[in-house]
Amino acid sequence: MRKYKRWIAALLAALTLIGMAVISSGAAVAPGVDEVTWAVDDHPTIILHGLGQSNVFLYDEQGNKVQDENGNYIQGWPPKIDANAILKKVAFPLVISTLFQHDLGLTKALRSAVNDAFTYFKMDETGMPIQNMQVERVQTIKDGEPTSFGEMTGDLQWAQDFAYGSMPVQALADAIGEDKLYYFAYDSFGNNRAITDELYQLIQKILVKHHTDKVNLIPISLGGTIMNSLVDYYPSVKEQLHNVVYVIAAVDGSKIVGDIFNRRLSTDNENLYRDMLPKLVDGYLGYLLNIVIRLLPKQMVKSLLDTVVDGLVGDVIVRSTTMWSLCPSDDYETARALWLQGDELADIRRQTDRYYQAQVNAHENILDMQRKGVNVYAIAEYNKPLLSIVGSYTKYNADGIIHLDSTSLGAHSGYIDTPLPADYQPETGTKRLSPDGIIDASTGILPNHTFYFKNQAHEGTSKDDLIIRLIARLVSSKNPETVTSMPEWPQFNIGRETRWLRNDALRMAGEADRSKLSAADAAELDAAVQEVLDMLQTTIAKEGAKEAAEKRLSDIMTKIGAFAPPEDKTTDVILEKITHFLSDAFYYGYGPRGFSDPIWKICK
Question: Is 531 a member of any domain?
C-alpha cells in the first residue's frame, strides 16, 4: 500500500509538471570555479530559476505564515500532495466501482480529491492567487532592496543557503563575486505578467545600485518563459543586457504541457496496458500495476485519467498564466479553444494571448539581442524521452521534460538514439551533426552559441558539474565566446551527474582512517580517490568514465566498511521478472482490456 500511494503521488506530480523542477530539494555543493584564464565580466548577474525553485507560503491578515494542524507552514509551491487524503476520498467509490464494474462515483470523487489537493494553487479570474499566497523574495529580503548573495549573511544566511541549494552556482560566485550575484525568486504557479514586471523593476534597481548600464541573465527552464516576456514586453531592456545564458530553457514551452492541455494522453493499447506504468514506476510495481488496472473496465481507466487532467487543468491550471506559458506555440490555439472560453476567462485569455505573441516572437527577439551586442548562449540536453504519459513521448527528442526544439532554439534532431537519415540535408546552410548523428546544430537560431549535453535528464541538471561550470564560464566572460573559441568546452558533450561523488563520497573517503587499513587497501583507496578527482578535473566527459570512477571508489569504500554493502535485491529481481512475464502474458494473451470487458460486452 505504501508503494501504491507513492505511485498515485507520482502520477499526479507528472500531470502537474513537477518534473520540470531543475533540482531536488536540499543543498548541493557545486564544483569550484575553473582556473580563471579569461577576461572576467564585472556586470551583476541575475538567476531566473526553474519550476518550483522558490518557496510560496500562505499568510494571514497579520502577515504571518499560516500553519496546518501538524504545525507545518502551508505551502503553495512546491506542493505537498497528501496521498492519504486522496486515498481516503476515493477508497470507497474505488472499491464499489471495482466490484460492480461501473463508475459509481469514482471519477467524481477523484476530481474532488485532485481539486482539494491543489486548493492553494487556485487563481482568480485575473490570474492572481485567490488566497494570500506569497513568495519568499530572497532578491529583496534586505529591507525590500536588491539583495545579493553576498548580503545574505547573519540572520539572512538562510536565504543564501536556499539560493545555493536551489541552484548551486558557487563556481559562478567564485568568478564574479557574491556581491554581484542575485537570485530572482517568483511564484512558479503565479502570474506571468506580474512576475515579468517585477523582474524588470528589479533590473532597474540593480543597475542603479551598481552604477552600471548592463546586467547578465541566466533563464533556467521555466525562467525561459519569463525571459520571453521580459524582452517582448520591455524591448528597451535588450540594451541593458550583456550576457544571457539560456539553460534548458522552455523558450517554446514543453510538449508535456501541450499534450495535457490538449488531452493527448498516451492511452493507446500498447502504452496503457504494457509500457507506460513500468516507465513511470521502477521495478516490479510498474508491471504489477499493469495487471491491477485490469480490475477496472478499460473505458473507466481512460475516464479516470481524463478526470485527473480535467481536474488539474479545468479547476486549477486554467487560470495560471505561468502554466499557460509552458504550452508550446503550436499547441496554444487548440488548447485555448478547449479551456479559455466564456466571459469569466476573458482576462486570462487576454493575458495568454499576449504571452503567445511573445512566445512566437521569441526567436526574433533573441536574434535582435545579438544584433544589439548581447552575448546570447543556450545549453540544451537531449536523448531522454518525454514522460510516457503524454502522446508526444514517442515523437520528440528531449531531456525528459522539455523537447529539444524548445531548449535548443530550433535545432533539428532524430528521436532517442536515432541518427538523422543518411540523406538528410537541412533546408539552408551546411549541416553540423553531433558525433552520434542525432542533432543538426546548424538549424538552431544560435548554431555557434548552443551547447548540447547527451543523456542528461532535466531534473538532474544541477547535479551535473560540467553544466554548472559551463554556465559560470559563459556568464563570467567579458568577451564573446563561441562553440569553437573554448577548446575545453566542445559543442557536444555528455551529461555527468557527480553531486554524490563531490558532496558525499569524497568527503567520506577523506575521513576514512587509513591507519587501520592494510597497505593494499589504503593504496587502492588513494588511487580510487585520485581517479575521481582526475575525472572531475576534465571538461570533456568520456562515456563511462564517471561510472567507472564511481564504482572503483564505491567498491573499496564498501570493502573497508565505510559504505554499507549493496542491498540484496534478489527478491525484487525475481518479482520483477515474474510480474513482467505476467504483464506481457496478459497483454498478448488476453488483450489490452480490463478483465470484465469481454463479459460486459457479451451481456450487452
Answer: yes
87 within some domain: no
Task: Give dist(CA 378, CA 246) in Å, integer.
Answer: 5
Cell numbers for 532, please give them. 575521481
Q: State the CB neighbour count (10 A cutoff) for residue 312.
A: 23
Q: What SS3 class is residue 561?
A: coil
**CB–CB of 172/471 below 8 Å?**
yes
Instruction: Dump pLDDT digits (tens) for 70-87.
Output: 888 988 866 666 777 778
Q: What's the first-to-final CA gap in the chain, in angstroms? A: 35
- Other C-beta atoms lying within 10 Å of the C-beta of residue 353: 14
pLDDT at 282: 87
Say if pTM beats, i.e. exceeds, 0.90: yes
Q: How far apart are CA 381 and CA 461, in angstroms?
A: 9
Does a structural domain hold residue 544? yes
Helices (H), 177-327: 192-209, 223-233, 255-261, 269-270, 276-280, 284-292, 298-309, 315, 321-324
- pLDDT tens for 51-62 read 889 999 999 999
Over range 329-349, report the average pLDDT.
Answer: 96
Contact present, 475 and 245 (Cβ < 8 Å): yes
Does the residue 329 lie in any domain? Answer: no
The Cβ-side half-sphere exposure at 569, using a 13 Å CA radius, reads: 9
Cell numbers found for residue 483: 562553440
Which set of grid coordinates corresponds to residue 40? 572576467
Bridge partners (DSSP) listed for residue 218? 47
Residue 428, Cβ density class (10 Å: 0-12 exposed, 13-18 middle, ≥19 buried): exposed
Beta strands in 43-131 (DSSP E): 45-48, 56-58, 75-77
**Treating both helix axes as pointing N-terminal to C-terminal, what angle do 106-117 and 83-100 enclose, rounded to 10 degrees?**
170
Of 259, 299, 294, nearest in space to 273 by CA:
294
User: Rounded to the nearest 5°, which phi and psi values hold at 211?
Assistant: 50, 50
The set of cell numbers assigned to 430 is 551546411
Q: Please state which of the ranges 269-278, 475-484, 504-513, 592-601 shows the lowest mean pLDDT.
A: 592-601
- Cα–Cα distance between 494 and 541 in angstroms, integer? 6
Q: Which residue has the cell 494542524?
A: 69
CB 55 within 8 A of CB 75: yes
Q: Which residue range(s) make up the domain with 510?
A: 499-559
Looking at the DSSP bridge assignments, the partners of residue 184 are 48
Return the bridge partners of 67, or none: 73
Is pLDDT of 33 > 70?
A: no
Instruction: Indicate whether 598 pLDDT > 90.
Output: no
Number of domains present in the structure of the chain: 1
**What DSSP character marks residue 314?**
I
Rounded to 10 deg, the angle between the 223-233 and 346-360 helix axes is 90
Cβ-Cβ contacts under 8 Å for 269 (sequence gap 6 or more): 592
**385 preceded by cis ω (within 30°)?**
no
Count of C-beta atoms within a 10 Å radius of residue 554: 17
Q: How many Å is the maximal CA-CA distance in the chain?
A: 80
The phi-psi region of residue 74 (left if phi > 0; otherwise alpha if psi is between -120 and 50; otherwise beta) is: beta
